[in-house]
Structure formats: C-alpha cells, structure tokens
Amino acid sequence: xxxPHLESIGLTAPAPTQSVYREDCTxxxxxxxxxxxxxxxxxxxxxGCAGDRLHNKLHSIQRRHPLALNIRRTPKTVERDxxxxxxxKLAIAAEKEEDKYDTVLTPRCLECNVDLDVSDSRVANLVDxxxxxxxFARKEEVKAWEQELTTCEHILLMQQSESRKIEQSDLSHCYxxxxxxxxxxxxxxxNLGCGRKQMGGLDGNSHALKHSDDSGHGVAVKLGSIxxxxxxxxxxxxxxxxxxxxxxxxxxxxxxxxxAERQKTEQSLTxxxxxxxxxxxxxxxxxxxxxxxxxxxxxxxxxxxLGNSCYLASIVQCLFDLPSFQQRYYRPNDDLxxxxxxxxxxxxxxxxxxxxxLSGRYAKPxxxxxxxxxxxxxxxxxxxxxxxxxxxxxxxxxxxxxQDALEFLQHMFKLVSRSEHTGEKQDPTRxxxxxxEQRLQCLGCKKVRYSSDEQDSIFLNVPLRKxxxxxxxxGPDKYESITLEECLDLFTADESVELTCSSCGSKDxxxxxxxxxxxxxxxxxxxxxxxxxxxVPIKVDVPVIVPDEPFSLDRYLSKGLQETEELLPExxxxxxxxxxxxxxxxxxxxxxxFPYNRCARALYATGNSDTNNAAEWLFSHMEDPDxxxxxxxxxxxxxxSEADPxxxxxxxxxxxxxxxxxxxxxxTGGDMERAVDWLFSHPxxxxxxxxxxxxxxxxxxxxxxDLPANFQLQSIVCHKGTSxxxxxxxxxxxxxLQTDSASNASWVLFNDEKVVEAxxxxxxxxxxxxxxxxxx
Length: 776
Prior knowledge:
Its EC number is 3.4.19.12. This protein has 776 residues and is α+β, with helices and mostly antiparallel strands. The model is unreliable at 82-95, 142-147, 572-577, 634-642 and 689-697 (pLDDT under 50).
C-alpha cells in the first residue's frame, strides 16, 4: 500500500548543527540495542523508542510527524589479534560502527502502519544522511577529549628583543635554580626558567612565572616538548592558558635554535593530563585480589563516563538515592510532560534519569561490554542529554572538562529550583535548605546583631597537620586524621572581624560566630582540604573521621537573641557589609592565602562566582590603598534605582520574571552578566513587585529547629587526584541489599557504569569530598 504521507511531506537532510537522536529515546533510555529498536523522526530527528513504551507514537501523534526510520543493531563477535593502540593525544579516534555491529534500517510510516521502501530515492538519501550525521551523544563524546588550542594577541604582537644565539650549555638548567627539566624558554627575551610543579611528580619552582611577572613578558615554550615538526607546549602567562604559535620556527631561530635539530625529551602537558586521568582509579578488587561483586536491579544502575562526566554521575547517583528526588521525578504511572522537544526539557530529562536509575529496567549484565575483568558489568546509561541541558549556557559545565562536583551540585540545585514545573509539585531541593545564623558582637559596647542566610550546604575547612616524614620515605606528604566534630567546632567557632562600630565608635572590631538557626532534612557538607603550592591550589588527602552511626548536631543550634543582650541600632546594622561572597569561591581564595576582605572585594568586582577571575583581579589590584578595608556597600546600586526596560525584557526572554529581573539589575548596578549570576544565586527571591503584585503568603521557612537533630551518613562523593578539576569521582551510597534471607544495609560503589558492593567504604569515608547526611 502506498503511503500518502511520503507523497505529501517534503523531507530534508539534517543540517550540520542539528542534533540527530539516533542512539536512545529522548524520553527514556530504551535504545537501538533493544529488540524493537528506535524510531528516528524523518522530519525533526527526534528519537522515540519503538518497544512497549511507544514513545515513537507519542511523538508522531503530538507533532504530526508520521514518518520514521527504525534502527536496530546487534553486536558482532569481534576477535582482536592485537591490543588496541595506546592513546597518545586528547582526541577520539573515529571508530567504524559497521565493524562492531550489524544494523537493520527500516523506514516506516507510523500512522499508516506500513514499512517504506528503503531504496526509494525520496527516502534513501535521507536515511544515508541520518546515519552519517553525528549523533547527539557522539558530538558530546568527541568534545570530551578534544582541546582546541588557539593563538592569542600576545603571540601575534610579540616583539622579540635583540637576537642572539643561545648556546646549548645555557639551555641546561633554570636561571634561578638547578632544575634541568620542566624548563620554559621565554620567547620574548630568551630567559630559561622552570615551570610550575605538575601533577604526577614533575618538579618546578615557578621561576618562569616569576620572570613573566617581573618582566611583563608573556609567551614561553616548554623546551623538552619541541618536536622537529614544530609542535610544542606554548603557554601565555598573560592569558594564563595554553596556546599555539604558528611561527614557532621563526621565533626559535631568533635565539639561534634550529627547529629541525630539536628532539622531544619530555611529556607534553596533554600527555601528562591523559596519564594522570588514566591513573586516578578506584580499586575494584578486595584486599585478597578478588573482584568485587557486580550488583543489578532497581536503584543499582550505572552511568557511562562521557569522557569527563564522572563528577555529574557521582552527584546524580547520590541525589536520586534520596526520597525527595525519587518522589518528585520517579512516577512510572504518570504521563510525561507534553513538550515539543523532550531533549531540551529539564522536567522530561530528570524524569528520564529517575526512570533509568530506579526502575531496574536497564540494570542487567551485558555480555557485550568488554572489560578487563572476568565479571560481567552493565552497559550503563549515557547521561548525554541531561549533561548538555544542565550545562547549557554555563561557562564551565557546557564544556567537557572535568569539574568540581560540589559546584555542579549547587548549579543543579539552582536549575531545579527555578524550573517552571516545580511550582506544581514539591521542590526536591528544599530538603537541603536551612538557615545559618550569624551573630556579630562589638568588642567595645558588647551590642549584638543577628542575621541569617538560607543555604543548601556548608563548607568545612579541614585543618592540615602534616605528619613528620619517615627517613628515606618517598611519596606525598601524610597528614594527621581530623574528626568531623573538630571541623564543625572550627566552623562554628568565634572569629574576629575588623569593623568600626557605628554605635559606640570602637575600632576594636567584632566577634563573629555562625550557628544553625534551622537544620535541613539532608545536610550536604563539602570538606575543603586545600593547600597552595607555587600559588596553585592543590587538594591533599587528609583523613576525616566520620561516624557511621547516627550523631547529634544539637549543640550547634543557635539560641538566638538572649534577654541579657542589646541589639545594635538599626542604622548601625545598615552600615555593615551587605555583600555575601559565594561560599565555594571564597573558600578557594582563602585557601590560596588571601585575607577575607581582599576576597570579598575581588568577588564583588568580578560577579561573585568565578574564582579564576577573582584571583586575576586580586593580582592586578594588590597595590590598591583600600585593598584590605572591609567592603561596605551603599544603599543605592551604582546604576540607579530604575532598571533599564530593555535589559528587563532581555532577561525575560531568558525565562526570568520582570520583578526578579528588575531586582537583579538593581542589585548589580545594571550589569547584565552579574545580574544573570545574581538570579541563579537567588532562585527563591520574589523580586521588586508593585503592591498589588506582592505575594499573598509568607515564604515557607527553610529547615526546622526542633530537637533532637540526629544525622547519619547516607552517601559520599569521593575524589582521587591533586586537583578537583582533574582526576576521578565516584559515589558510595548506603543501600538495603536483598540477600537470600534478609535485607541488609551495605555500602555500594558507583564507579561510572560499574556498580559493585563496596569493601573499602570505611577507608573512603575518610577521604570523601562531599558528604550527604540524612536526618534520622
């Protein structure tokens, strides 16, 4: 029977920028590897599962797109005569799918319920274009290991000083120390200095950086990385980034160095990064060498690593273990949202993730997964759509670089909180929110001020007490164990603040103390274990002893204003600093050795989010006369009280209501970029409303203050590596595992797609990066 839709619908091939969802369904994780396969819409290239869930027909009816290409594939038996070649650069080699799978392609009309002739010219070219197009997941995967380096203005406009021939003997060691490797040649003047200390043990004293700071010269080349072909590590200290020098041969010849005579003697930065990423792994065996037992079933589904997505996988696993996220997003009997583009709808993708992780539908052994072990693991779900959606528009999370898991958690909280769907149902992030109360007391007149901020996590600075090195011992420094209680005591301890009291005029300063005004249902804790080496923040392993049994936080609850205390006058309160530095960025800057006042000024000046920008601002404003003065803001925003209507309209196009857009612009002096950051930092703010627009009900308080407040560790995100922006993340989660006779509480390790019963959870608890404590 001829299909009338094929006659009437004009079909066009996907554009290069268009996503083709031809691997898994946009509304669930059913894929082309299932028996029924996947139907790819021939008009918009949405992917809909063709099995029992019938998301293909749902899309067809909703969009009136009846034509689809059904794709089904089965794995071939592949015999490898040789092991795969060792990866040597940050790139993904093109792997031919036909070498791995047998694929069956069937064009069909879902409305007429007929298969179409794949050789029909109207269909054949389109089918070929769909199969040749980069899939959505492949585009993300390719980005995972690619680093697109470019040149910069400092290279293009570089003026080299008077030419001279640098003798080989002068290229043997750093100008300021005896180091003979990790040497960087300044292309401006020919100075040779050692680089920064690198992950993996490569030594360095940052003398090349010191030379750049002292001379103002920006561009250097790593001497041992130069090849006769003209490739090398080029670094611009002014840009603080890797670069490409298209005229490297000419620039070296200026110093009498012949490119063709150079030989590469050291690893490049890229090679070192790959080597370190491959090293940071978590043991998948017991102490006696036995492989850990794989687990399958509901709540035990793994997530594929898309290259550098383990930070996302570990946080998502912990969140969807919690009742608030499960109840909000795992609703197998409810219809999915009726949206035109499911792949770009946050509600749909969170529902898809909940179904994938919790249903057990995909947690089964997959014999086609080739692992270097004798046990069979699961295939794992690829979180490409959720990752793209959460990262869209974000400077860091839109890239495929490794990220800070805690920063990702906070970003995800912001997106979920302001999602349009959370107005209808309970916001799952409210379980994390609580109020932290700050008490300021003038050391002169003893008057006090109380203020509180709503938060969804706390940052505990872990004391670093280095253990004496044993004679002849090698390897990283060892640190004394610290208890969680000691970290909490430090967090809530009194500290001094340099402020002038506007009530009594005393310059003695204030004492400041932070305590909980309320407690959340789930307390997220970030253990900051940072030190600074050559001005670079380095994460160190400090064992933090965390109890496995429930423990009390009662003594950290604020008692509030006491009868014997006298409040500071209102005008005095108005003169105290109103700016609240972003906690993660503040903690990082303070770990680098900067005082609080400098950190606050830098974050205020750079939008209160990006640590790198704030650090750059600090380095360029060290000589400011007021750099160490407390930041005091006036009542009026620099841009005036009235927000620009065009800017309000622009923010409205991004999904922000006019009242809150108006307030964001007022708070940030009309700066659009900072206004957007303010909006993400204040997801619950109602904004500036007219009287008739004001909300009729008071906002529900965050957390609760009733006692006892007992908490127990529920899950942890662990990290291996010397930087939170490199290395590897995994999650350990407390689960009830069903055995033959009973249900027992056990720790489960989620290491990407591998899900196993953990054997070293006690040890890993000491080195966790993010802890989730559940109120019990």
